[in-house]
Amino acid sequence: xxxxxxxxxxxxxxxxxxxxxxxxxxxxxxxxxxxxxxxxxxxxxxxxxxxxxxxxxxxxxxxxxxxxxxxxxxxxxxxxxxxxxxxxxxxxxxxxxxxxxxxxxxxxxxxxxxxxxxxxxxxxxxxxx
Length: 129
What we know:
There is one protein chain. This protein is α+β, with helices and mostly antiparallel strands. It is built from 5 helices and 4 strands; from the N terminus they run E-E-H-E-E-H-H-H-H. It has helices spanning 33-36, 62-75, 78-84, 87-93, 104-118; strands at residues 10-13, 22-25, 39-46, 51-58. A two-stranded antiparallel ribbon has the order 1-2. Strands 3-4 form a two-stranded antiparallel sheet. The radius of gyration is 14 Å and the shape is globular. It starts with 9 loop residues before the first strand and ends in an 11-residue tail after the last helix.
């Protein structure tokens, strides 16, 4: 399934081991509330043998979301990042996320900082009027 062309650029970063690149967008985005906090099957790419397995995650649960978002930032494709990530929810678990590669947090930190500056109350969803 092809996703619509995003309104931002996704940069590929090549770490010291270029066979494991990761992706960094030029800005963060929001998903709808129901999409962002859904229970879903998250593809977890096992880089060692190029097999895919799926894991059920509840993105409304802080621990599940921190674990899932950590895996996405390290192993996710640009399409997976676009489909699963939500800026508010990422910022909510950012400090608790365990990122096994030292180069990923500094690459994403400016995006998180910029998003946090635009929010009055991080993690607060707008109400429908």
